[in-house]
Amino acid sequence: MSHLPRQALALLVCAYPLEIFADETLNDIVVIGERTSTTSEATKRYTVPVTRSATGLALTPRETPQSTSVVTRQQIDDQALQTTGDVLSHSAGISENRADSNRTSYSARGFDIRSFQFDGLNIPINRFWNFGDTDWDTVIYDRVEVVRGATGLLTGEGEPSASVNFVRKRPLPEPAVSFSTAAGRWDRQRISADVSMPLTSDGTTGVRFVAAKDRKDSFMAHMEDDHETLYGVISSELTPGTQLTAGVEYQHNETLGAGASPPLFYADGGRTDFDRSAANNTPWSTFYNETTRVFVDASHTLDNGWTLRAAMSHNDGNYGLEYLYRGGYPDRETGLGMSNSFLNYRGNRTQQTFNFTAEGHFDLLGRQHELGLGWVRSEDDFEIKRAAPIGDTPEVDSYFNWHGSVATRPQWGDYSSSDDTNVTQNGGYLVSRFSLSDPLSLIIGARLSDWELDQTYYGDERQYRYSNELTPYAGLVYDVNRWASLYASYTEIFQSQNARFEDGSLLDPIQGRSYEVGAKTSFFGGLLDGSVALFRTEQDNVAEAIPGVEVIGQPGTAAYRSVDGNRVNGVELELVGELMPDWNLSASYTLANAENADGERTNTTHPRRQLKLFTTYQLPGEWQGLTIGGGARWQSDTWRDARSPNGRVQVGQGGYTVADMMARYRFNEVLSAQLNVNNVFDKRYYEQIGFYSQYWLGEPRNAVLSLNLDW
């Protein structure tokens, strides 16, 4: 194909994303052929041919009746996205909100993201205790797949926000070795190695080992982050059609100088205006989490083409924090007057997930269709213990002494249990893709789930059970031509809640529903994908306290009733892939208007609108070793009501843009160097404002230079 038609089409797609559906003359465009899964690192592209994250079936983006995105290995490397948090904050439709040095929440379509998947196995995020669920090193992942909206068919319990699937690297059929070292602002130091080696001459058995160590200081006083990652995996084709993969990953994250956020108000009610180094910590403050995850994945393809899969994951984790929390408001002149709490927590956690699936084709009424079924069980068991200071509590200095040590480390007493929780979920699902005609397909499915929680929270025993929760799924896809399709879908998800009616019975789970219609395109054999989606998300059965009413027989326990919850209407547009040879683009726009049943805006701590753009271009001719790139992330205003000395006031962050740039030069087939500059224009902005009357600033301008060797 000549470059001229591609260039013309690329410009047309960029300028008129909706007009492409009216043009039938571009006959030289090819479509994706085989729907076979592949690793993204082997393609060096921003797109992948198929994913399974929406339904469990291997579907191309055009065949999937939901809004999906993929951040491939190439995009991760181009943008130097070193943590899973980096990936999510650069993903279409996802926003972040940071509470303190180690707690970050993510939202999509007006609701919190409450679970992740790893190779399709669902792992819940602990919303209250930080076991590092949102802070993994990306060095071990091939790509990250995102499905937005209600995703209860595969995830079970959660909110109608998005599911995020982290797909691990696998052994490669040919020997490959890569080594990278990087340095950057705030004494940033990083080193990583990735070795893949076949053990048989035909490459059907191989091993892969990945290791990384990353440390850096911070623009905030005393703070230092250290991350260590180890990963090993072996994969073998035991017999024709039988694949066995087993692996283990270990991650250890530690923050010295951990702590909360700087105060937002002075004691007189005025706003503070500290420089960026202001912190709310001490030199001895510490936070850490450590996780070891073992996984086994076995699959077998029968002679009739059906594939059976059994997979399991076992995680052992622990975490701890020890720091001084200061709340309230300092005196404008002395910096004194804040409240002080010395905190010390330790936690242990065990997670187990089992997944059994079957997938294949069947014939009905002269046409071939697809069927998938599965059973999933997950168990999350953790205990949190707390220690209190003993003896004399150390004196706390003025807040203005954040560059020094405002308090010495106290002596701690024995640990006692504060939260001992076990959450178990079982679910079975069935999904089928019916080929109604050559251009029209129907996907229908359902899941039946059991969910239970047993908890002892500061001595208060709690038990919650939900049985036979039905979660339907329906989608319709119509192929307009070889490169464009229209779709509509209806999906659900349920969310547990711990509220009771006046008679003591448990409220039904919150029901989340997503309605979505859209259009998708795929050009150049899947090298460039585009989509537009209109969606509406609803929540019902949300608990609302009944004023002055208590649960019968439980004095002091408020009674609740079920009411309609939030409604979110929005639109998403995305264009990702190769506009022309050596020119990659990832662009997205999201509007999510979240309101409660009374029409009032909700989820105001996350932006209503987002625009994300990143592109790279490899120069031609004598400069073909040079790749340049850049991008920007814009979001609209956010706000919340915060306590101040003068009562509750509204505080917020106006809309802002953060720009990034990169350049990479490949000296030869082995050696390359890359420079990434983040927040090029040094924009000062709040990542969070008003939480506990404090704030968290985004990182100032910084740069990272890496040297990479690939054999």
UniProtKB/TrEMBL annotation:
GO molecular function: siderophore uptake transmembrane transporter activity; signaling receptor activity
UniProt keyword terms in alphabetical order: Cell outer membrane, Ion transport, Iron, Iron transport, Membrane, Receptor, Signal, TonB box, Transmembrane, Transmembrane beta strand, Transport
Domain TonB-dependent receptor plug: 61-161
Any Pfam family hit: Plug
The species this protein was found in: Kushneria avicenniae
Main location: membrane
Family: Belongs to the TonB-dependent receptor family.
Keyword DNA repair tagged: no
Residues in the signal sequence: none
GO process terms (BP): siderophore transport
Cell compartments where the protein resides: Cell outer membrane
Membrane-spanning intervals of the chain: none
Phylogenetic lineage: Bacteria, Pseudomonadati, Pseudomonadota, Gammaproteobacteria, Oceanospirillales
UniProt xrefs under SUPFAM superfamilies: Porins (SSF56935)
One annotated Gene Ontology cellular component of this protein: cell outer membrane
TonB-dependent receptor-like beta-barrel domain span: 245-680
Protein name as annotated: Outer-membrane receptor for ferric coprogen and ferric-rhodotorulic acid
